[in-house]
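Q: What does the assembled structure look like for these inputs?
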Amino acid sequence: MNDMNWLAIYPEILLLVMGCVVALADLWVTDEQRRPTYWLTQLTLVVVGGMHFYYYDAGVTTYAMQGMVVADSMGHLLAGFACLATLITLVYARPYAASRDMLKGELFILSLFALLGINVMLSANNFLVIYLGLELMSLSLYALVALRRDHAVSTEAAMKYFVLGALASGFLLYGLSMMYGATGSLTIPEVFDVISKGIPNKAVLVFGTVFVVAGLAFKLGAAPFHMWVPDVYQGAPTAVTLLIGGAPKLAAFAITVRLLVEGMIGLAVDWQQMLVVLSVMSLLIGNLAAIAQTNLKRMLAYSTIANMGFMVLGMTAGVVDNSTVWGANAYSAAMFYAVTYVLTTLGTFGMIILLSRQGHEAEEIKDLAGLAKRSPWFALVMTLFMFSLAGVPPTVGFYAKLAVLQALVVNGMPFYIGLAVFAVAVSLVGAFYYLRIVKVMFFDAPTDTAPLAAPADVRFVMTLNGAAVLVFGLLPGGLLDLCRHAIRQALTT
Amino acid sequence: MPYLSLAIFLPIVCGGLLLAIGRDDQKHAVRWLALVAAVASFLVTLPLIHLFDTATAAMQFVENQPWISRFNIRYHLGVDGISMWFVPLTAFITVIVVIAAWEVIDTRVNQYLGAFLILSGLMVGVFSALDGMLFYVFFEATLIPMYIIIGVWGGANRVYAAFKFFLYTLAGSLLMLIALIYLYAQSGGSFDIQTWHKLPLSGTAQTWLFFAFLAAFSVKVPMWPVHTWLPDAHVEAPTGGSVVLAAIMLKLGCYGFLRFSLPIAPDAAREWDWLIITMSLIAVVYIGLVALVQKDMKKLVAYSSIAHMGFVTLGFFIFNELGVSGGLVQMIAHGFVSGAMFLCIGVLYDRVHSREIAAYGGVVNTMPKFTAFAVFFGMANCGLPATAGFVGEWMVILGTVQYDFWLGGVAATALIFGAAYTLWMVKRVYFGDIANDDVRALTDINGREFLMLAVLAIATLYMGLYPKPFTDVMHESVTELLKHVALTKIPA
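A:
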């Protein structure tokens, strides 16, 4: 545990190097379309993602950098998906950025660094490393939101994001420092050991946990720490919204697992209560507020809040009656939820990008009107995304909800069954506004009859994205097994 | 041969193909392709009737493969005497719907026909699924095509009707989802319906499960007082949508009672039978009266469907063979008769573009052939002996009298109400003098319309005169089910 073990962090090193290479190389790119930068970035993502998927089933957990980082199945799997999500994001983002004077080297470089931050978080084994990764990601994203400097709404969104994000980081850091004070260590396994041997300073520790959970809730966008989500989602250029709504959710899930589950499972009784409150509030606020929205991006932002609530709900059922037998089941359900949610949400924001043209931001729900007549194929794909978010079979969103509900009900406790019934009831509210999108696309007359103009690569990736939502819906077994395997390994070591 | 898989996936794949390749400038090719697909899907269900062994209550044509190993969900199909007839019935009605849409649907033809083919496969899946989650997936997935069918090709108020239909049904079935997961947990990780049938459950658990299932199935049937979505959906849906809704989709709920509620929670079912019987009788009597005052033909038939479904649930919850078999026969008969009634309304609507009873009168003078069919189906709807409508109602009334004489008496009033609202409508629409110029300008049915009505008329007549093939298939399974329901599952 005490050696550097460079081998285990090759993907991260490669990502860092390539981030720098892209930054340098971009100085000599004269192409308006930034093709060399784009393809170099995508190549990096493919290679790094491929490495993560390749290392996924190494079977053993290895530590590197003197125990600062850990390479396990969960980290590799989520990192692989994060690379994939960033790759898809950039495919969707390129034509959008090109028509808005945003297609600069910064877009790609900052995306790569944000991804590096995400990967650092995913493999963190130490409180400070988590914080480091978090800041790397957040600072890149703040800058990306403000990429259109002359755009007042974007700048305002960036400001809000920055202030609230910094506050959240402060919360997290404050909480972590209390944890350090109570346990005398910053390394996650050591914190775990100290807590499991008997809690030395319970008051300080629980107090610290409150701050940690609050900080995490900010990053997840769970109510009542959700205020930034709608404003930032709406204000940021859609391409950047896509980036924020995708891979960072995986990171937020991962650090929740690393901090709360791997580090503080001994305090599960305390933080589970907080998570229950967070998820119930998120489900309520997210779903109810989404109904009233006319702006598509804002509606999807509230839908994100609701979905994060659902995911967190899965994490509340890990420890029941001081028994961790349900742990792997519950956390893998939440992980499956996070992965499939990102998959679906990429497609939905990608569709918004497709709808917008030069000089026209298609962000209102009514911009989707009559899409079934304009571009039946895209309307069908979008329908799949909507039904997936609503949790209607046979789309993957249904199995995500099933997995979480199953985790709640399987322990047979009336409290959790009550939570499941509540979750189901608010999903019904959610179904209404997703259905409204389908209604607008299929039943309303189009205001604009021109078919969507989409480059071939976007068309192809969008189709794949829709197909994935359906195929994982018909055959979710493989992905479910991957998630369970990853979580089991993370829990046993 | 995996007949059931073929019956499910042949229409789904063909429907998907139509969606992918069909274009509005090749309507004719699309229609023929859909017809071939529908007929082929119907043909593959015929071996089920042929090869079905009526001497056993066991599941037949079983296919059992692992599907999602993480939750032990299996691709487990099979039919017994309770479900077998619904598979060919579904495929048969789909053929009729494709024929009925021939000239009538002129926009986005491929999407319309594709949606119906997919819907048909999904509904066959519901009837043949033996895995709880597989059942749920099919059950829920049927909402998507129906939502689109109502919303795109429906009447003026279609959006409201489509939303109401979707959200009502979803609300009910989400509670069922929790019940299914609970059963999964209780049975030690199995979604197998037959395992659940044997699973001992405490009285409280059974009660909760019973009501969770009731929430899902009563909305789907629909039973009073959660029936209000049905008239809206029927009125706004295009003719084909109404036909499928009445003929098949309502049966999904009734079927659910027999496959889930009764065998999984028999003690709760016996304890709460009075509730279902009361709700059914209210449906029969009160909804019958409501039907009487309708001005819109489709609404009238929709309410009549609710009343008929009241008969079905009544038959199920008096727990004797006449009642349960009668309910099943009624389900099949109603499939033919209500389908035909909606087709008749469609025939008139295509010509006059009104569903108001008051817009017609004396149709017999201009459409004699059509009126013969319409009157025949009207008679079948009010349960005239020698038609399919009679057999089921008669069996249920007989069974109810066995159970309790006075309840039987109340149930029998349905025949009177049924006759009253149907015949009164027939009188006002078809007989008398020609009411207005629209009616004067009517042309009689063409060969296509004649064909679809004639086929349904033959089926209705055959079932009314010789119901034995239907009851023979059901007998063993129903007896077995009743034996099972009579035993307690509460662990001692």
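The CA atoms of residues 169 and 219 of chain B lie 6 Å apart.
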